[in-house]
Amino acid sequence: MTAIEFNHQILNLKDNLRYFAFSLTTNQEDAQDLVQETYLKAITHKDKFNPSTNMKAWVYTIMKNTFINKYRKESKYKTMIDTTEDLFFLNTSSKSGHETPESHFNHSELERVVNGLSDEHRVPFLMHFQGYKYREIADELELSIGTVKSRIFFSRKKLMAMLKDFQN
């Protein structure tokens, strides 16, 4: 396959690549950047393409891998590493400590509604909210794991119904 044929085949995939890139990024500008990076990598590594294989699948794979690698790279930069001796940065609260009247009311209302649940639903829900795993809750309350999951599920549904005003 000549370079002209290769480039022509890749350019014919332009609309498909834009659509796939947008489905990955959900942002028009990021999708366009991803398409450009994909074209660059495909043209740079055209010697690795086997003409007897599917060009569209090959280019889609390049795009998907480029997207995944970029996501991983960005998530590493967002990670905070605390090198202080006593972990000062991780142990300090990012909150100012000042509570607004509205947030106090919201917290009180949430607490009232959660406390209004029956014990069989409230206890597993609060334990899960506090970070206990389903298995730990089941062992502590001497229940089956399925019962714990269903009680937490139904607690969430009840809370969502009772707290419609807090949604969006």
- Radius of gyration equals 26 Å
What overall form do the CA principal axes indicate? elongated
CATH class term of the largest domain? Mainly Alpha
What percentage of amino acids are in beta strands?
under 5%
Q: Describe the biggest sheet?
A: none
Briefly note the CATH topology name of the largest domain.
Answer: Rna Polymerase Sigma Factor, Chain: A
CATH superfamily of the largest domain: RNA polymerase sigma factor, region 2, helix turn helix motif
| Count of runs of 4 or more consecutive helical residues | 9
Taking the alpha carbons of the first and last residues, their distance comes to 55 Å
Tell how many strands the DSSP assignment holds: 0
Give the mean pLDDT: 83
Q: Tell me the number of structural domains.
A: 2
Low-pLDDT residue spans: none
Helical content stands at 55-70%
Based on the structure given, which CATH architecture of the largest domain is correct?
Answer: Orthogonal Bundle
What does this structure look like?
With 168 residues, the protein is mainly alpha-helical. It has two domains: 3-77, RNA polymerase sigma factor, region 2, helix turn helix motif (Rna Polymerase Sigma Factor, Chain: A, Orthogonal Bundle); 101-158, Winged helix-like DNA-binding domain superfamily/Winged helix DNA-binding domain (Arc Repressor Mutant, subunit A). The chain is 70% helix and 0% strand. It has nine helices and no strands. Helix 2 packs across helix 3, helix 3 crosses helix 4 and helix 7 packs across helix 9 (145-162). The longest helix has 23 residues, at 55-77. The radius of gyration is 26 Å and the shape is elongated. It starts with a helix and ends in a 6-residue tail after the last helix.
